[in-house]
Amino acid sequence: MFTYSIYNFIIFGATFFAYLYEKSASKKNQILFLIISFLIPFFFLAIRYDVGNDYHNYVEYFYKIADGAIVLKEPGYLLINIIIADLGLNVQWLFVFFGFFTMLFVYMALPKDGFAIGVFLFIVIFYFLWAYTSLRETLAMAIMFYASKYIYQKRFLPYFLLFLLAMMFHIMIALLLLIIYPIANKKTNRFFLIIVVIGTFIMVQFTDVAHSIVESVVMLFPKYSWYLNSKYMLPAGTSAGLLGPIIKIFIGLIVIFFKDKVIRKYPEANIAINLYVLALLGSILLLDISIFSRFEAAYMLFFILSIGYFIKTFDKNTRIVPLFLISLFYYLMLMRYVDMATADIDNGIYLRPYRTIFNTQTNEPVFIP
To answer: What are the DSSP calls for 304-354, one per residue?
Structure first.
């Protein structure tokens, strides 16, 4: 019950103040509501203990790096660990740092029009399943999510500089978002995209296309060959069989179908929807091999923008229906994941019951001065 209370407080507390920020006419109130909306999810992200399946790995890396051991990770990540250790701070400040800047880049990327929708979708789709699990990846994703505005502005230099920053924390995620720069804003026929999505789903169900893709990638990057004999080659353990993924894909197909209408009102949405399609393809491929959740995650934040733009194309009297149905679906999916507790889902990403650094009964060196 404690976990459900905390998670629901985060979801609805942050969304409520995001709505007040969006609707307030007072500049001072806008700043206040925005800060509160930001602080609610950030606070619980920063003080968590053993929530997210990589938590203890990051603790272990921190003490190894502090002791001068060689850890083969990106230089930005290593530098942050070293600075925190050299300042005499404890490992929890690592989670504070990554939580703060991940949240900051995401909040800066969300448009004010429909900000509350964006915050809600960010929390139920991305925040719990990734920000609690993968520090390096999520910060790189958030940086490149913010950088995507420069694709629309056709300003490659700031986009590339932000790519370099993201690469300091996770090379592969940054590269996946760099290589799409020339094609991200292409005007692609919506029916072609629908055929690609449906065709990929059919191929995954009846062929070994996912394995072929992984084997091709391993041939190009041999250092990832260990994946071939790991648990990541197993199908994603989605709790609802194909029902949840099919509904997620169906929502994506509806958004794509209305693509032309959406981009007439919001031209910048073309980029978000194109990248949303890539995330959908990752969602489909991971049904066969769970490692594709990393590919899905690289573009997952664009779920948020695309669905938000789609909902905002409806007038105020009719948007309540798609808003309610889509929000309810993603909320129930999240609650299902929470209900599974420590069960492995989608590449081993799961949510343990919520605990903080203040109420844990452990002797592990997690929050020592």
So the answer is: HHHHHHHHHTS-TTTTHHHHHHHHHHHHHHHHHHHHTTT---TTT---PPP
Asked if the structure places residue 111 within a domain, the reply is yes
Percent of the chain's residues with pLDDT above 90: 63
Q: Please indicate, yes or no, if residue 348 is contained in any of the structural domains.
A: no
Question: For residue 349, is it within any domain?
Answer: no
pLDDT of residue 311: 95
Domain count, the chain: 1
Which residues span the domain enclosing 49?
2-339
> Smallest Cα–Cα separation from 276: which of 236, 307, 244?
307
Cα dihedral value 296, 336, 129, 14, nearest 10: 120
Q: What is the structure's pLDDT at 208? A: 84
Has residue 367 been placed in a domain? no
**76-101 pLDDT tens trace:** 999 999 999 999 999 999 999 999 99
Q: How many CB atoms lie within 10 A of CB 223?
A: 8
pTM for this prediction: 0.89
